[in-house]
Design goal:
Keywords: Metal-binding, Zinc, Zinc-finger. The protein is α+β, with helices and mostly antiparallel strands. It is 28% helix and 14% strand. The chain has helices at 4-7, 18-22, 42-51, 71-74, 98-104; strands at residues 31-33, 38-40, 57-59, 87-89, 94-96.
Amino acid sequence: MESSINRGCDFIFDFNCFTCQETDRNTEADFYCEECSKFYCSKCVEYHNYLYKKHAILSKENISLWPETDVVEQDKCKEHQKEKLTIFCEDHSELICHVCQFHNHQ
């Protein structure tokens, strides 16, 4: 499977910013903190670096040292976290799990 970095996709990233993702924003990560084991965009890394001055930050120049993405986590339903996204709802143009289909997409 070819990574989105190579494909050039505009909205699916191999590495999402941890802080942005927690606030439902889809932002590509530009940095990785080895101590926190988290990814950060260029804006959020500034706040991180202000708070944690001694943490080792890796930029995309060192992307080979970043961990592999956890595709398994990306394939899980946000509402039903133990369920995998297995169905595409054409009415809502989104991936859903079978529980979502039963309750919300009939």
